[in-house]
Each structure stands twice: as structure tokens, then as C-alpha cells.
Specification:
Number of helices: 15
Helix content: 10-25%
Shape: globular
Strand content: 25-35%
Structural class: alpha+beta
Strand order of the largest sheet: 9-17-14-13-10-11-12-16-15
Length: 714
């Protein structure tokens, strides 16, 4: 059910300085590579690699996983565990014998003859490492090895005709490459156009398609973050052009959690090999990057292999910055025609460089956008022009008192990418549009504060919908750098058909799958003023801070009456309902973030609770974080709501707030009028899992084709 982020599994050991790192080179094997490093082997007979222990003739069995740091063997019989800490290890395969190596048992189950045996290799020399990797390269070439760390892509099938058409039209606009395969051959293709008059797809290939014979054709094309595979059952060729009907189904292959883009010119890394310092400091160019990875142009003599853990990587950004990362080798390609090989790493910045890393990757992946610092006046003008201030019946004058706080947060937020992202699409005439994200909960980021300049886009915009598409990509990808990221939360006003389709309909479609990855429903966001106490005595009702037992009761009540994604995203689980870790995180940056829970009791029995939240001024111009919710704990609960609203007024007034929002998730009742609660907009609460972000951005890419903007959600 829960969202998830691959970064959450990262190791946390850090070196205090580069000197501290160098002093421990070479690393022990257990720290230099993962236990499951290297390559899985499935060769038989002449293609098998065998392992011997003690002497060359004492064959233990076939090797099932191998790297220069670890060997896993499927034994042919019982294994005798030697008393010594290490023993000689020999590898044999494809006419080559390597050894003796020095190994130590990782695991040996003497009671089960078929149990795999693990051996940690220690003190492997550079030459022995070359021999092992050469043996593995030969196994890869013969198709009997695969990287142990590789992950199979996720696939799903799309059969809705309109959805297929939308996806392929979006691919036409993006100009991404494809590959046509038939009879063991392949040729590059580009999907150039969907002809609405003929309902045909028009493809262009690198060679005449008339030589390919009759359909069917198998074609793979690349979307925003997915590869799509389809079978085209008919078509006609004309030179390098192929005309086909829309397919009846397409298969989607998710190939990356994070989108990768070409690295900036001049970007390179420096690092030492974790096993063999004698190779010297390696400096290699960066080919592409994402929030979680780099692709390097390496040489065969670098002796890279999957599972290797370089603990200290210095990234030169190409713009004079140096960032420090740690990583894990995930894949290594075979040498190409130029003699180089591509090496993919998953990486994570050291804490001292976390903010700079996020800013660097964000700017690289979305170069048309900027962060909000030094654009405060232009943004205020943008909010005025776009009509943002008139949402919910407000006027621009009502926001003037927040202008100073907004300017301050626009500057500070750019320096704290761990909590904020305010993206701006600038042009020669100033900010064209903006969209913000912040992290108000432990596992959820909130999208908010969207504004777009009305009218025609500037001349620099070449693609319809480019501005909003770029902003959505920048902001929705931003929290993917957060290892705790599970959910996106927003309150969207679906008065505009585009917003309804982009957000509400998307979440509703995901809800229909029953996977628990999305939730949306209309709510009432009402206004409460702190000076408007009802003046009632509220006899028989005692209100106070929730006890530990009452917090548990409230968490259980919410879990019983709300979807699981709501509970997890909004920190209503038993262990997180007080939001202490979140408050501490904001306080670390000298920012306000608070949650307090008050309980109404009758004769000492808790009957209702109000959850009061508060956020730093300037984070949102509508003060979305200053929000109260009411929850009944018994059937008598609603009878105490007026008293709880008055208590909430006192709580917010004590924190210098003149008003706050009451989020009404039911149909209201007499208590709304009795408590003096004012009307407000009826947005949709919108929650989607982080797992859906690549698919959601694909969805946005489809919708923005042929469009020139979108209505502003609050």
C-alpha cells in the first residue's frame, strides 16, 4: 500500500574529511562491496565456473555468484568447515584457473548438502581481480551471467484506446527515439506524427522500411520515464516512412525511478578504487545523472563491478563546485568501439553537501526553471496578474501584510531544499509561472501555490504546454531526493476542467485499482477568526491536552474511518501523531511547525478531539499549514465541537495568528454556524503515492500537449 523511495535503503556511514577517507584505503572487502556484489552465473557444462577449496583438485561445486570480493557456490556434497580463519580458494572456467585466492566462510550449513556456501575473498591482488573480471566478461559474452544487483522493470498493459492515443500523441511531440524489431534485426525509429484525418501513426526510420516485409512489426518507443512496447499489425511503407494504425494495446516498462538527463559539460568525478589503491586516483567524465545516480565513462582497466562501494566520490559540476558523494556500482557495460565502458552508480550526497546536490540536480534536470530567490517582486506581480489572490473570494490587499514573510521564505526556501521547492519559469518579461512544494509531514510533500501569467506565452516558448510541464517535472521530481518520501498531498480546486482531469480524475482512476496508492475527495476549507469567540460557557465540557491513551484512541479512530494513505501521509499513525520528528526538523532551520491535540471530555470521558497545526509564516500565502481538524471519539463528539473551536481560537491567538482554516471533511452541521465559522472554498484533498510520480508526470506530459497552461490550484 505505502509509497516508497529507493533512497530509503541507503547506507549512512560518512567520512568526516577526504583525508579520513584516504587513510583507510584500501577498504576491507566487507566495506568495499556488497555481499551480493558481482554477477549471478547460470552456466552449465563447458560454460560453468567451478570453485575448489584447499587444493586445486578439491572441487566444491559450481559458482552461482562471483565478484573479486565474494564467491557463492552450490556444493556437490557435504561441506567440511575448516578450523582455520581462511583457506585457499581456486576458480576454474573456460580454460582458465585463478588462484590460490584467500577466502573465509560467510556461511556453511553442514546439515544440508544442497545449501549454498558463501566465501569472502580477502587480499585479492590487482592481477587476480583482472582475471576474475575477465572470466566474468567472458560469461557475460556467452549469455550465462547477469549483474546480481540488476532489477527487473515493472510492466503493465494499457488497452484503453483514448489512453493509448494520448500517450502516443505526447511521444510525437517529444520527438523521442524508438526501435523497430523484426526477424532478429533492429532499426531506429522516430514517431513523428499522429494524423487525425487518417487516424494513422507516421514513423520515420533510418533505413527503407520496404525491405522489412509485411507486418506485424514490434516497436519500442520512449516516453517521459517509460519505454512502451507495442505490436503494429498492419502498415504501409514509403521509403524511410512507415504508416500504421494505432495499436490496440501497449505494454509499459518502467525503467527508472528517477529521470536521467545528460550531465553538464565538464562534469567529472574523482575517486579511488575501494579495493586497489595502487590503481591511483581515477578521474572520469559523467555521462548522465539523476537525483540518485550517475553514469560514468570508464575504462576496462578501472576494474569496476556491480556491488562495489566507492565511499568517497568528488563530483566536479563543471561550474566550479565540488560535491562529495558515496555510491554503489549498479552496472558495467561491455567495452564499446571507442574502448570505453559505461558504469552506472547509485549515489547519495554526504550531509554537508545535501542541499547543494539537490539544487545542482534539480537545475540540471529542469534547466528552463529556477528557484525563487531574487525573484520576490516578480512573483508578487505574477500572483496579482494570474488572479491567485482572488481565489476563495480574497483580494490582493488582504495579502499585503504577508508580503515581507513571503519575501523572506522565497529566499530561505531556496537554501533548504530538504523542506522546500519553489520553482519559477522565467522569461525576458519576468516570472511566467510558479509552483511550490514543501514537506509538512514525515513522509509527505505538499504541492501548493500555483500561478501562471495569463495570455500568450513568450516567444521563447516553442512547445504548447511547455511552461506548466517543466514546472510540474521540477517540483514533483524534487522530493524524490528525500529518502523518507512516500506521498504527495495537495488541495486542488477543480473548477477548471484541466485541473479536474490532471489531478482529480487521475487520482480517481488510481483509486479504482484498489491498490491504496491514491485518494481524493471534496472537502470544505472554512475560515475561523481568532477574535470571534462565541462567548458560551460550554458547561459540562472539559478541554485539555490529549493524554497518551487519548492519542492512541484518536489514532485508532482515524485509522478506522480514513484510508490508510490518509493516515500515513498526514502523520496520524500511533507513533507519529504528535509530529515530534517533523517539528524538530523544522526547528533545525529555525522555522515554526507545530501540532497539538486538544480533547473534549464529559465527566472525564474523551468524546472529541481537535488537531491543531501551525506552520511558518510565508510558506503559503493562504496559510495552508494553519489548519484545524475535528474528530469525534464517541457519538456525543459533535456536541462539543463549538467548545473545541473556541479552544482552537485561543490556541492560535496565543501564537499571534488572527485566523486559521477549519478543514471540514463531513457535510458540516449546526455547529458550523453556532461556532461562527465562515465559508470558504471546496477543494479536493488529493493524495498520491510517490510510486506514482513517474506515471503522474507521464500523465501531465500527455495533457499539456497542445495546451498553453492551466488553471491555478490553491
Amino acid at each position: 500500500m505505502e509509497g516508497g523511495n529507493p533512497l530509503s535503503d541507503r547506507r549512512t556511514v560518512e567520512f568526516d574529511s577526504r583525508d579520513a577517507f584516504i587513510n583507510v584505503i584500501p577498504l576491507p572487502p566487507a566495506e568495499a562491496a556488497l555481499d551480493d556484489s558481482g554477477y549471478s552465473l547460470h552456466g552449465r557444462g563447458a560454460n560453468a565456473i567451478t570453485c575448489s577449496l584447499g587444493t586445486l583438485d578439491a572441487t566444491l561445486g559450481e559458482v552461482t555468484r562471483l565478484s573479486p570480493t565474494v564467491v557463492w557456490v552450490m556444493p556437490r556434497g557435504p561441506v567440511t568447515h575448516t578450523e582455520g580463519p581462511t583457506l585457499p580458494v581456486f576458480l576454474k572456467g573456460r580454460g582458465l584457473t585463478i588462484g590460490p585466492l584467500v577466502g573465509a566462510f560467510i556461511r556453511a550449513d553442514a546439515e544440508t548438502a544442497s545449501a549454498p556456501v558463501g566465501l569472502q575473498l580477502v587480499g585479492v591482488t590487482v592481477e587476480q581481480g583482472r582475471q576474475i573480471l575477465s572470466l566474468l566478461a567472458d560469461a557475460l559474452k556467452n549469455g550465462v551471467a547477469e549483474p546480481a544487483a540488476s532489477v527487473l522493470p515493472v510492466q503493465d498493459t494499457i488497452e484503453q484506446a483514448e489512453r493509448i492515443r494520448s500517450i502516443l500523441v505526447a511521444i510525437c511531440a517529444s520527438g523521442n527515439n524508438g526501435v523497430l524489431r523484426r526477424k532478429g534485426r533492429s532499426v531506429r525509429m522516430v514517431l513523428e506524427r499522429f494524423n487525425t484525418a487518417t487516424s494513422q501513426l507516421e514513423w520515420r526510420s533510418e533505413e527503407p522500411v520496404t525491405e522489412w516485409g509485411e507486418a506485424p512489426f514490434d516497436v519500442d518507443v520512449i516516453g517521459y520515464n517509460s519505454a512502451y512496447r507495442m505490436r503494429l499489425d498492419g502498415g504501409s511503407g514509403d521509403g524511410e516512412r512507415l504508416y500504421t494504425q494505432l495499436p490496440t494495446r501497449i505494454s509499459r516498462i518502467r525503467h527508472r525511478w528517477h529521470r536521467r538527463v545528460p550531465a553538464p559539460a565538464g562534469a567529472n568525478v574523482r575517486f579511488h578504487h575501494p579495493l586497489w589503491r595502487e590503481l591511483g586516483e581515477l578521474q572520469r567524465d559523467v555521462v548522465d545523472l539523476s537525483f540518485s545516480g550517475l553514469c560514468l565513462r570508464c575504462k576496462p582497466e578501472d576494474l569496476m563491478f556491480p556491488g562495489l562501494l566507492p565511499p568517497h566520490i568528488e563530483l566536479q559540476t563543471g561550474e566550479g563546485q565540488t560535491l562529495t558523494l558515496r555510491g554503489e556500482i549498479r552496472y558495467v557495460t561491455s567495452p564499446r568501439a571507442d574502448g570505453y565502458m559505461l558504469c552506472g552508480l547509485s549515489v547519495q550526497p554526504y550531509s554537508v553537501d545535501e542541499a547543494r546536490w539537490v539544487r545542482f540536480v534539480s537545475q540540471t534536470t529542469s534547466p528552463a526553471t529556477r528557484t525563487s530567490e531574487n525573484m520576490e517582486d516578480g512573483l508578487w506581480d505574477l500572483f496579482t496578474r494570474s488572479g491567485f489572490f482572488s481565489l476563495a473570494g480574497k483580494t490582493s490587499e488582504e495579502f499585503e501584510e504577508q508580503r515581507l514573510a513571503f519575501r523572506s521564505m522565497a529566499k530561505r526556501g531556496a537554501e533548504i531544499p530538504q523542506l522546500f521547492c519553489q520553482a519559477v519559469w522565467p522569461s525576458e518579461r519576468g516570472p511566467e509561472a510558479t509552483l511550490s512544494f514543501m514537506k509538512p509531514y514525515r513522509h509527505a510533500w505538499m504541492g501548493h501555490q500555483v500561478a501562471k501569467r495569463p495570455g500568450k506565452p513568450p516567444p521563447s516558448v516553442q512547445e504548447p504546454g511547455q511552461i506548466m510541464r517543466d514546472l510540474y517535472v521540477r517540483t514533483f521530481e524534487h522530493p524524490q531526493s528525500d529518502p523518507d518520501f512516500r506521498w504527495v498531498v495537495a488541495y486542488v480546486e477543480a473548477l477548471n476542467p484541466w485541473i479536474a482531469k490532471a489531478h482529480v480524475r487521475y487520482a480517481e482512476r488510481q483509486m479504482e485499482t484498489g491498490q491504496g496508492l491514491a485518494f481524493t475527495r471534496k472537502v470544505h476549507m472554512l475560515d475561523v477568526y481568532t477574535h470571534e469567540q462565541t462567548g458560551r460557557a460550554h458547561e459540562g465540557i472539559q478541554i485539555g491536552l490529549a493524554t497518551a491513551q487519548e492519542l492512541t484512541l484518536l489514532a485508532d479512530t482515524i485509522a478506522r474511518t480514513r484510508p490508510a494513505c490518509y493516515v500515513d501521509a498526514l502523520d496520524f499513525t500511533r507513533e507519529r501523531i504528535d509530529m515530534r520528528p517533523v517539528q524538530a526538523r523544522w526547528k533545525q532551520f529555525n522555522l515554526e511547525r507545530e501540532r497539538e491535540i486538544l480533547v473534549a471530555r464529559r465527566n472525564g470521558v474523551p468524546v472529541a478531539a481537535t488537531v491543531l497545526e501551525l506552520g511558518q509564516r510565508g510558506t503559503n500565502l493562504y496559510c495552508l499549514l494553519d489548519m484545524a481538524r475535528l474528530f469525534p471519539l464517541t457519538e456525543e463528539g459533535p456536541s462539543t465541537y463549538v467548545a473545541l473551536v473556541d479552544a482552537a481560537r485561543r490556541w492560535y491567538a496565543a501564537r499571534r495568528r488572527t485566523s486559521f482554516h477549519f478543514l471540514c471533511e463531513d457535510e458540516g452541521g449546526d455547529y458550523v454556524q453556532e461556532a461562527g465559522i465562515h465559508g470558504g472554498p471546496d477543494p479536493y484533498m488529493w493524495i498520491i503515492s510517490s510510486k506514482l510520480i513517474p506515471d503522474f508526470l507521464e500523465h501531465i506530459s500527455e495533457l499539456t500537449i497542445g495546451r498553453r497552461g492551466a488553471h491555478n490550484p490553491r
